[in-house]
Amino acid sequence: xxxxxxxxxxxxxxxxxxxxxxxxxxxxxxxxxxxxxxxxxxxxxxxxxxxxxxxxxxxxxxxxxxxxxxxxxxxxxxxxxxxxxxxxxxxxxxxxxxxxxxxxxxxxxxxxxxxxxxxxxxxxxxxxxxxxxxxxxxxxxxxxxxxxxxxxxxxxxxxxxxxxxxxxxxxxxxxxxxxxxxxxxxxxxxxxxxxxxxxxxxxxxxxxxxxxxxxxxxxxxxxxxxxxxxxxxxxxxxxxxxxxxxxxxxxxxxxxxxxxxxxxxxxxxxxxxxxxxxxxxxxxxxxxxxxxxxxxxxxxxxxxxxxxxxxxxxxxxxxxxxxxxxxxxxxxxxxxxxxxxxxxxxxxxxxxxxxxxxxxxxxxxxxxxxxxxxxxxxxxxxxxxxxxxxxxxxx
Length: 395
Ligand code: FEO
Prior knowledge:
Helices cover 36% and strands 22% of the residues. The protein contains 13 helices and 23 strands.
């Protein structure tokens, strides 16, 4: 499909993908590769190894792949670099353009000594009528990550940045529906990019100097409408700055219903104060969905029963994920029922703190089953949450 003058989408739609290294993908994904037909035909990124036949089919529909002179590898993670070795068999004259770290990673992955051209920020490559410019974007989201810009077309090939795991017949955001794409973009950011806010802000600063008319990410839909491009940049600025909304997320699992009773009581009281709140049971919700809700929430309330002196396995899994993603600038509260030892709650509190979340009160820990007096006491901490949210300047 031609997406701009002599620029073609030659990617692979992964309709059946349901799990991307632990991230649930109920809508599948795409690996977007782009072919620029110029004096020196250039491919921007490739696809996962099992999508190569489709990619080759699409390239052959446009040009003889042996004409390809450059393969730009913006990022060495295998969903984008996984077909470089196969493509080089059909494009033996191709030179691989990548960042210094990209070259190192590709060598680790493929054990091949291809013709490499290593680029740095602001380096350019003339491919005929066009000159491509490169910008290293380390830790958005790997050390090797970079983006490629075609000034002639005003197109930014942004790789993982601004992407979404979403398979569709449409190729553009405005065709697929902006709300769906923004939701998928938030999920992508929360699960893949969240720990690297400072790097995201540096990348946005770099991009501000460019005239961008189209953003072509390596996953999902292409951004081409001015208002859509502005919207996603604005959201990346919000998320990269760890700005949150006045929103509470209650996440829990339960054993005999006591922890769930506390969760319901918290939800009821918070709702009565007109604070937006989400109630999520980890037994039936994937952690990648949960973290998407946490992305813009100022308060996270996490509950677990105690099992064999430990927190529940579903809660432990979420906590491990949370500690890695480190959502900054939020408040937390813990709760849960126990039988004869509260020891496990230390693990819960330590985990939350390690994730960078500030606990605002003592945990709510009834023995076995909470009684009405106990539940009534919960209102005090809910008022504290409201006061904190009212005091915080939330943008
Ligand atoms: Fe889509 Fe970091 O790979």
